[in-house]
Amino acid sequence: MPMPRRGDGPRQPPAVTAIGLRKSYGDKTVLDGIDLRIPAGSVFALLGPNGAGKTTTVQILSTLIAADGGQAQVAGHDVATSPAGVRAAIGVTGQFSALDDLLTAEENLILMADLLRLGKREGRSRAAELLQRFDIADVGDKRAATFSGGMRRRLDLAMTLVGDPQVIFLDEPTTGLDPRSRRTMWDTVRSLVAGGTTVFLTTQYLDEADQLADRIAVLDGGRIVAEGTPGELKAQIPGSHVLLRFTEQAEYGRAADAFPGAVRDDEDLALRVAGDGGLDALRALIDRLDAAGIRAADLSVHTPDLDDVFLALTGDGTASTGTGSPLHAKETPR
After folding, report:
1. Which of 65, 177, 225, 306 would you call most buried, defined as having the most Cβ atoms within 10 angstroms of its Cβ?
2. Residue 82: CB atoms within 10 Å
């Protein structure tokens, strides 16, 4: 019989709520009344350009700093009136690891267990369990200073889990990691959520949010400018189209006549034909080409992705994709 997830049950209260959350530093307003409601046992991603207030939001919800206005609850505890209750229910992994490089991996975990007052036997047991879970048991006796970036982040997250938190805040957890290490971290996050843990993720890697998040909110100018599932956010952005490329001028000319509403690129002999990106629309387009006896040299389908959503909502190009390259549209060859 499968074990129930901590988030199961129709009446499970939300893991995180915020109403009218505000924060200013001097005359600079960082958060201008944001609202959040995050279901238990889910991944919630907060996106935004640099300086949008993502880290400030995490700091408020994790009781590291106080809000200037509004209310927030985490795991059923008010962040202002019951900060100790919040801290007992959460784990926080920041942008930079909190490891002691002079200690071994096991010693770092035991130190965290001591700080949480788990007791000697329970602390050692928990450390051994987490070393196995994060696949670093074979280097448990090695100093953290010798670890690669990916191993350090895994150990850092393992330390966050020593107290078995209900809610985990991951503030840009994969910054600086190579693609393999990032995917390992993604698998770890998925396993946590499968066990009922709630994950609050901030990231500038848009593919990361697309891969992991059940819901995404975009923060810009101190306000939530959009919220929804990745699919819902993408659906708000127009621009789906099929790109047809030709090598022969004659074929290109005939195609331009067949699709008079298409956007022409006479230099590259390419046509951009608007559509919804669905299979039915693609099939109809191909049938139309076949009926007219037109042969395209290449066909690719473009659908809006989170890069497009981010740029449309924030007008900012400072975020990056998962590979560290500038924001770009994705085209899928067919």
Report:
1. 306
2. 17
Q: How far is CA 66 from each of CA 21, 58, 80, 83, 215, rounded to the nearest angstrom? A: 10, 11, 7, 10, 25
Could you tell me if 313 and 218 are in contact, meaning their C-beta atoms sit under 8 angstroms apart?
Answer: yes
pTM, rounded to two decimals:
0.75
Angle between helices 120-133 and 105-115 (to 10 degrees): 130
Cα–Cα distances (Å) from 90 to 73, 105, 118, 162, in that order, read 12, 21, 16, 11
Give 238-267 pLDDT, tens digit per residue. 778 899 999 999 999 999 999 998 999 999
Exposed, middle or buried, 102 (CB in 10 Å: 0-12/13-18/19+)?
A: exposed
40: closest CA among 214, 219, 226?
Answer: 214
Indicate the domain borders of the chain: 16-235, 241-302
244 within 8 A of 333, measured Cβ to Cβ: no
Please give the Cα distance from 7 to 41 (Å, whole number). Answer: 5
Residues pairing with 74 in the sheet: 16, 77
Q: What's the CATH code, domain 241-302?
A: 3.30.70
pLDDT in tens, 164-208: 899 999 988 888 778 888 888 898 899 889 989 999 999 878 889
CATH number assigned to the domain covering 16-235: 3.40.50.300
